[in-house]
Amino acid sequence: MITAEQSEQLRAWFAERLPVDIYESLVSVTVDREEITVVGTIPATESAKAFRERTREQRIDVAREAEELYRRKVAWGVRVGEETTLFTHLAVPVMTRLRQSERQVLDTLVAAGVARSRADALAWCVRLVGRNTDAWLTELRDSLDKVRQVRAQGPDAPDSMKSESE
Fold first, then answer.
1. C-beta separation of 26 from 7 below 8 A
2. Beta carbons of 43 and 19 less than 8 angstroms apart
3. pLDDT tens by residue, 84-97
4. Is beta strand 83-87 parallel, antiparallel or unpaired with respect to 73-80?
5. CA 120/CA 98 separation, integer angstroms
6. pTM of the model
7. Helices (DSSP H) in the chain: which residue ranges?
8. How far apart are the first and last CA of the chain?
9. What is the mean pLDDT of the chain?
């Protein structure tokens, strides 16, 4: 997970490199260990498909530079009104160990036709939790940033060792 400061730096990096006519505004730049997802608004008169075709070469150029620099794949998306459409984003396998009662939850979702497989059922559960606990997850992420800041000021921080030896 990256800090809020690193996230802002990444957003600024993309904002500087994206041609002016790509998006009306940059909505979000989201990052995890594998992928950076860039989403911006487009005019209501333009379809996601038309945007994708019109901006392909420009987005590829920026993505290549970002992938080399940040060692992550870049996915793109657009927002028109309240609807967001993502292009070629990753679906990354995640290994987990579940107890029988947890597997039964996934199997129930599959049997009910909510999901096609256990993997789909698990993704559905994660989306549901994320949607229902968004404020809590945001607070938790902010707390992690604060922990990193405090840890960086501790006795093992590079700057604190420097002042002791001077």
1. no
2. no
3. 999 888 888 888 89
4. antiparallel
5. 15
6. 0.67
7. 4-17, 48-70, 100-111, 118-132, 134-152, 158-165
8. 34
9. 88
